[in-house]
Amino acid sequence: MKAVIIGAGRGSRLRHLTEELPKTLVPILGRPMLDSILDALAAGGFKRSDVVFVCGYKADVIRAAYPDLTYVENRDWEQNNILLSLLCAREHLEGGFVSTYADIVYRPEIVADLVRSPHDITLACDTDWRRRYVGRSQHPETDAEKLRADAASADRVVELSRRIPPEAAAGEFIGVMKLSARGAAQFLTAFDAARAAFSERPEFREGRSFRRAYLIDLLQHMLESGAALHKIDTHGGYMEIDTLEDASLADAWWRGAT
User: Fold this and answer.
1) Phi, psi of 147 (to 5 degrees)
2) pTM exceeds 0.85
3) Checking DSSP bridges between strand 51-55 and strand 70-73, what pairing results, if any?
4) Mind listing the pLDDT tens digit of every residue in the chain (258 residues)?
């Protein structure tokens, strides 16, 4: 099983902080976000030789700073989005994988909990997510990748969308998930089918084309096709750094989460 870090984009809303650095190297809590992510992956049993980094913007900077990682390059990072970025690492996915966004900080035990999950597709969910949106003017709750759970089986995911009303959400998908080999096969089959059906159409999900799709778009498409998705919860201990405002709030967020 590999760990895949999806980090091709620039992070333009961090403005001057990403003029010379890729987003994942922006210091948060006194260190690059990537260092925190690597620590979390290590807690799940992943050595650096197990880690695949999908690079794009400032790829040379990442490669020079972390030469012990395996790299695949998303050469079209300015035109596509998270889903197609992850699939740049397709050759590393088939045996099962843990994937993570590159612009987040989270407790290491989250990855350990995911790895222990008996399910084929398991998403990490922050149940304390709304606390981080108080006073967050540049990234409202409507942008959160929210999920709903089955009332009869609290760990079964039934919907994954930004459009879920905040009060109806069980939490926010934090961008970290585990797929077993069987789950990876389901995921890749669903990707191929969706690409064949939607790549030439103007819209895939929620106004986005297939080329610009988020990871959650394919996961929701799978749910609607009958796939079983589950979740593990973290009650805080996670934050996304998307804007300069987020970077300025990070210390206070983290103190409130621990």
Assistant:
1) -140, 155
2) yes
3) parallel
4) 999 999 999 999 999 999 999 999 999 999 999 999 999 999 999 999 999 999 999 999 999 999 999 999 999 999 999 999 999 999 999 999 999 999 999 999 999 999 999 999 999 999 999 999 998 999 899 999 999 999 888 899 999 999 999 999 999 999 999 999 999 999 999 999 999 999 999 999 999 999 999 999 999 999 999 999 999 999 999 999 999 999 999 999 998 754
- Residue 26 tokens read as 């922006």
**CA nearest neighbour of 14 among 251, 249, 222, 254:** 249
Q: Name the residue with tokens 């050759």.
A: 91
Are 190 and 183 spatial neighbours (Cβ–Cβ below 8 Å)? no
Helices (H), 14-117: 33-43, 59-65, 82-87, 109-116
- Residue 31 CB: number of other CB atoms within 10 A? 12
- Six-digit token string for 250: 């990070």
How far apart CA 126 and CA 72 sit, in angstroms, is 29
Distance CA 218, CA 158 (A): 14
Nearest to 44 by CA among 122, 132, 103: 122
DSSP assignment string, 35-49: HHHHHHHHHTT--GG
Question: Six-digit token pair at 201?
Answer: 């159409």
Check residue 237 and give left, alpha or beta (phi > 0: left; psi -120 to 50: alpha): left
